[in-house]
């Protein structure tokens, strides 16, 4: 059990968000996360990978919502990263909740897909598995250093269907209108949900951070809406609990653009309902289709996921 000092302002917000589950939540974020990996089926079958792990005397527990995902018992993330199976690209170390957005998007072989904020590529490489290395994924990020990690990951995992771009995601709507079958906006956010992995988000917490982030997120989402073909699917995800960055952003798109949400359904995941109202603002009724993923209900990091269809 680790002691974390949480700023009073943040605790006040969490009290409103988690209500009577607050103590359970605070207990969960003090427990370290179990490391998890995604088997890279572009290089090895799940069956052969499990055999390899058996020979290393590591026991793997399936992640219910991703058929390639496993929690690894009895080892640390760092040791996993040093295994030859990792260098050879047979696996990708990925937090189990981070596997959710792509399982919700379900990109199909042959599609044209945009990963708007893609680095370091956890979800891009997962999409490539869904698409069986066919079609095209435009993997974009604004940050050159993080893109370097993404290109290394693509190479290590043998991903062949990705075109890497470095630009501000807010430009895609203008540059490539009506182009993509599916888009993922895994947005930059206040990262409150990553607290089990790092205290950075809590240490850097500022009450005024949410406004700036939510403005960027709204612009990224509008850009994604414009870059999508009519009938195209858009998944918006964050790893924060802040309603301004989650329901508030989705509500903005619903109120101003011709888009609808569809229910997020994820097998084996214990989801919590979205926030309907925050600081006196009621959100659009269609945010009811979005889901919140809480650490005390799934032994994972926190996540928010919305699925939308452009009319
Ligand atoms: C949550 S991380 C993405 C994680 C990534 N999807 C993955 O699964 O590996 C958010 C990313 O957004 C990028 N970013 C921030 N502002 C951006 C912008 N305006 N346009 C595009 N990317 C941006 C950051 O550099 C960061 O890599």
Layout: helices, strands, pairs:
Blueprint lengths: L7 H11 L3 H7 L7 E4 L6 H10 L3 E4 L6 E5 L3 H5 L2 H4 L3 E3 L6 H6 L6 E4 L6 H9 L5 E6 L2 H14 L4 E5 L5 H4 L4 E7 L13 H4 L5 H19 E11 L8 H10 L2 E4 L8 E2 L4 E2 L2 E2 L8 E3 L1 H4 L4 E8 L1
Parallel strand pairs: 5-6, 5-8, 6-7, 8-9
Antiparallel strand pairs: 1-3, 1-4, 2-3, 9-15, 10-15, 11-14, 12-13, 14-15
Helix pairs in contact: 11-12
Bound molecules: S-adenosylmethionine.
S-adenosylmethionine binds next to helix 7 and strand 6.
Number of strand elements = 15
- What amount of the residues lies in strands? 15-25%
Give the SSE string: HHEHEEHHEHEHEHEHEHHEHEEEEEHE
Assign the CATH architecture of one domain.
3-Layer(aba) Sandwich
Write the CATH fold name of one domain: Rossmann fold
* CATH superfamily (homologous) name of one domain: Vaccinia Virus protein VP39
End-to-end C-alpha gap: 48 Å
- Low-pLDDT parts are none
Overall average pLDDT: 96
Structural shape: globular
Multimerization status: single chain
Reading off the top of the CATH hierarchy, the class of one domain is best stated as: Alpha Beta
Structural category: alpha/beta
């Amino acid at each position: 059990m680790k002691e974390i000092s949480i700023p009073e302002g943040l605790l006040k917000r969490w009290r409103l968000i988690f209500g009577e589950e607050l103590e359970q939540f605070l207990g969960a974020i003090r427990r370290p996360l179990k490391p998890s990996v995604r088997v890279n089926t572009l290089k090895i079958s799940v069956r052969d990978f499990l055999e390899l792990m058996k020979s290393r005397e590591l026991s793997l527990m399936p992640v219910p919502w991703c058929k390639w995902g496993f929690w690894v018992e009895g080892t640390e993330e760092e040791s996993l990263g040093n295994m030859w199976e990792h260098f050879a690209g047979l696996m990708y170390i990925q937090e189990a909740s981070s596997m959710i957005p792509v399982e919700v998007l379900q990109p199909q072989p042959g599609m044209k897909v945009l990963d708007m904020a893609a680095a370091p590529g956890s979800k891009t490489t997962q999409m490539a598995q869904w698409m069986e290395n066919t079609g095209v994924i435009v993997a974009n990020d604004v940050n050159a250093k993080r893109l370097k990690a993404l290109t290394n990951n693509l190479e290590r995992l043998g991903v062949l269907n990705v075109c890497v771009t470095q630009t501000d995601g807010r430009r895609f709507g203008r540059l490539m209108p009506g182009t993509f079958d599916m888009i993922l906006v895994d947005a930059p956010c206040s990262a409150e949900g990553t607290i089990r992995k790092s205290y950075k988000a809590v240490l850097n917490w500022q009450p005024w951070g949410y406004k700036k982030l939510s403005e960027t997120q709204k612009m990224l989402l509008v850009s994604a809406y414009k870059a999508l073909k009519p009938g195209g699917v858009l998944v918006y995800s964050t790893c924060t609990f802040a309603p301004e960055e989650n329901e508030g952003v989705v509500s903005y798109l619903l109120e101003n653009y011709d888009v609808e949400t569809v229910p997020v359904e994820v097998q084996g995941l214990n989801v919590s309902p979205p926030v309907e109202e925050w600081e006196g603002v009621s959100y659009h009724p269609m945010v009811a289709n979005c889901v919140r993923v809480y650490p005390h209900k799934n032994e994972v990091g926190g996540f928010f996921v919305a699925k939308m269809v452009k009319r």
